Amino acid sequence: MTVLGDMAQATGVAAQRGWGPLTRALGFAGSAVRRSELTVGYRVPGPILDFANQLLSHTAPELTPARSIRQRGRRPELYEVEPASVVSRVRELVGDLEGEWSTVGVIAPADLIDPIVGDLGDAGVDVADIRSTTALDRPVTVLEPATAKGLEFDAVIVVEPARFAELANGLRLLYVALTRAVQRLSVVHSRPLPALLT
Questions:
Q1: What is the value of pTM for the model shown?
Q2: Fewest CB atoms within 10 A around its CB: which of 6, 36, 130, 139?
Q3: How many CB atoms lie within 10 A of CB 165?
Q4: pLDDT (tens digit, 9 = 90+) per residue, 133-189?
């Protein structure tokens, strides 16, 4: 049997912190288990993956941080704004990014989804609220961090990452959010960034 998983993205209620307890729970132990780490990434550019990997020392310290085969790319762009300007700054960034990329994902805390979707809609942006559709057929998608797992977008805007830490397995959810971008990553925040990212 082959079991494939990424402990850095284990975000469920019963999320495992390592492979040992998981393989024992499956009835395997010792020499019956051969573990291989996949340490080369192809999807996320190096500058973005390196930024996200800073979280691993806390979220998955037993893992070897992956390195990207794509060492070229733009560094994540960090935008610190006043709390009242978070939603409008997201709209401005979406306006810039949707003209350049086919897909833009906005990953935000639950209570900011409605204000962001409303503001983008008022600005004429063709936006999907992932809570009300299962289709990813619009240029811009707004979603919560837990829903972003397994998805990818050309450009991603992560909103208020410090708020993710308030959720169960929040720093792992933040890792998921930061690694959804295959080209560009922007971070909009009014609260200070988590210490691991500074």
A1: 0.84
A2: 36
A3: 15
A4: 666 778 999 999 989 988 999 999 999 999 998 887 889 899 999 999 999 999 999
